[in-house]
């Protein structure tokens, strides 16, 4: 009888353990697990948010660096001021290594009243530009290219100098007559004048009171838009200017 009671007690104990185990599993599945799942999600969300907050400044930093790089690349390499006989003169930004012709093109090209002869003789359109360079293209009425003859002032030469267009030089009997093109800008009294924009140093030295040093200064001061600009040359004062102004022209 006592053994039977002991077996019943053992069964109750085992059943109690099993019931407790099952209840524990159910409790964990339906009550405890959802709680921890929500908490884990919230924690994961916080971690993800923190990661985003950490990554965003890095992205912004990269974007800022890219913007700065673009701004640096957009900085003008060569800024030039081109004015005068152009369709749209002004200040322009050009690429590094640009030439004078590029600046002219940027300004819309030459205007109809440009001094083409002066430009073709005195302005190097292939010259490379430098930053802050100033370029001036003269108008036709600002400069005149004059053909000067330094032949002895004989009667025959004076007759040639007083004519414009095609004229004949006297030649020997064995030579056929040859023609030259004289310019109407030469003084009609046969005295001639020296173009301060195109004369060589030796030609300038034929002017009264002008020596090698002064002729060099005159050449360095080109181009001149009017004779009075000679007063801007160092060493030419009012007295010397009055002395030479009758011998020079533009």
Task: Describe the 3D structure.
The chain contains 7 helices and 7 strands, in the order H-E-E-H-H-E-H-E-E-E-H-H-H-E. It is of the alpha/beta class and 250 residues long. It folds into 3 domains: 1-74; 78-142; 155-249, Photosystem II 12 kDa extrinsic protein (DNA polymerase, domain 1, Orthogonal Bundle). The strands form 3 sheets. Strands 2-1-3 form a 3-stranded mixed sheet, with helices on one face. Strands 4-5 form a two-stranded antiparallel ribbon. The protein has a two-stranded parallel ribbon with strand order 6-7. It is rod-shaped, with a radius of gyration of 48 Å. The N and C termini lie far apart (149 Å). The model is unreliable at 164-190 (pLDDT under 50). This is Helix-hairpin-helix DNA-binding motif class 1 domain-containing protein.
- Strand line-up in the sheet with most strands: 2-1-3
Overall structural domain count: 3
Please report the number of helical segments. Answer: 7
Distance between the termini: 149 Å
Largest sheet: 3 strands, mixed
Return the CATH class of the largest domain: Mainly Alpha
Can you identify the CATH superfamily of the largest domain? Photosystem II 12 kDa extrinsic protein
State the low-pLDDT regions, or none.
164-190
Mean of the pLDDT scores? 74
Keywords: Membrane, Transmembrane, Transmembrane helix
Protein name: Helix-hairpin-helix DNA-binding motif class 1 domain-containing protein
GO molecular function, one term: DNA binding
InterPro entries: Endo/Exo/Phosphatase_dom_1, Hlx-hairpin-Hlx_DNA-bd_motif, RuvA_2-like, Soluble_ligand-bd
């Amino acid at each position: 009888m006592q053994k039977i009671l002991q077996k019943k007690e053992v069964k109750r104990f085992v059943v109690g353990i099993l019931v407790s185990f099952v209840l524990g599993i159910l409790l964990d599945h339906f009550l405890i697990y959802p709680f921890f799942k929500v908490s884990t999600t919230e924690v994961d969300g916080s971690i993800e948010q923190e990661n985003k907050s950490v990554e965003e400044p890095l992205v912004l930093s990269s974007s800022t660096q890219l913007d700065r790089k673009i701004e640096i690349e957009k900085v003008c390499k060569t800024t030039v001021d081109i004015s005068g006989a152009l369709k749209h003169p002004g200040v322009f930004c050009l690429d590094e290594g640009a030439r004078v012709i590029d600046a002219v093109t940027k300004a819309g090209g030459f205007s109809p009243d440009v001094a083409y002869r002066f430009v073709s003789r005195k302005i190097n359109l292939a010259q490379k530009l430098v930053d802050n360079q100033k370029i001036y293209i003269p108008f036709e009425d600002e400069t005149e290219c004059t053909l000067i003859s330094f032949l002895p002032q004989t009667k025959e030469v004076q007759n040639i100098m007083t004519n414009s267009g095609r004229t004949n030089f006297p030649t020997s009997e064995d030579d056929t007559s040859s023609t030259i093109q004289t310019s109407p800008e030469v003084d009609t009294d046969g005295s001639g004048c020296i173009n301060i924009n195109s004369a060589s140093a030796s030609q300038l030295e034929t002017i009264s009171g002008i020596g090698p040093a002064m002729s060099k200064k005159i050449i360095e001061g080109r181009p001149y838009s009017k004779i009075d600009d000679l007063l801007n040359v160092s060493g030419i004062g009012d007295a010397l200017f009055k002395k030479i102004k009758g011998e020079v022209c533009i």
